[in-house]
């Protein structure tokens, strides 16, 4: 995999190009036969939750059982953490461990991911997932919250802010999907050639996933994650291929909704992101003019995993400032 310098196609063009690849052909019969299986990573999840200071909870939303973490005191400001494609709430474990004493942290497994329900007849487009998140928060009695989303989760967070502005006190878009950059990323080049580097079809391919997601300085961490998660990632490959298609076909709608985002917004990126090029930062700032931004050096696609302390510092400063404003306005 080498550096890619070609311009990224606009989303309408991207959809057409994607539709012509083998990745767009979804085997629905195979999806109907899919069932969860026990794995090493699955057995580790309760231990990860305990270390993150999180309680394991669940509720039903629109025919999906949503599993989520609830950590921190109920009287603290609510911070919702929305994970990205092919991932789960466990992606936030390092960050939750650092921040749950200052915030009540809610971190869901998005429908279709982690321990939440996947339904072969359901829609997993970004805007649909955002509506499920809005309903989930209503069920929990959360009228408004700070929202941080990573990658696909960032697109979902942005859609939530655009269509439910009263629910979002502050928004952090972390290496988020939803805008075309000026350079095509390594992932995008692979997808257009018919190879999705974010899906591990065999356990050994999990190493490749983390190679593209992490900065080169985090190769050892990526190797460890690959060993721990490889079996589960390979088992979930059919689901991930299907959901990725829904993601691709919903990016145009997300992009069109960004000017509706009025919540205070912070864009956080890694300078070495090979999944979504760092040039996307300027595109987000153009679409959401009031947004602020920071690019972390020697960081890839997952700042909260690669540099959790730096990420926590940024989020803490931004959300605490917004909390002070909201608190003052409510006096």
From TrEMBL:
GO molecular function, one term: catalytic activity
InterPro entries: AB_hydrolase_1 (IPR000073), AB_hydrolase_fold (IPR029058), AB_hydrolase_sf (IPR050266), Epox_hydrolase-like (IPR000639)
Pfam families: Abhydrolase_6
Domain AB hydrolase-1: 79-312
SUPFAM superfamilies hit by this protein: alpha/beta-Hydrolases
Gene Ontology CC terms, in alphabetical order: membrane
Name of the protein in its database record: Pimeloyl-ACP methyl ester carboxylesterase
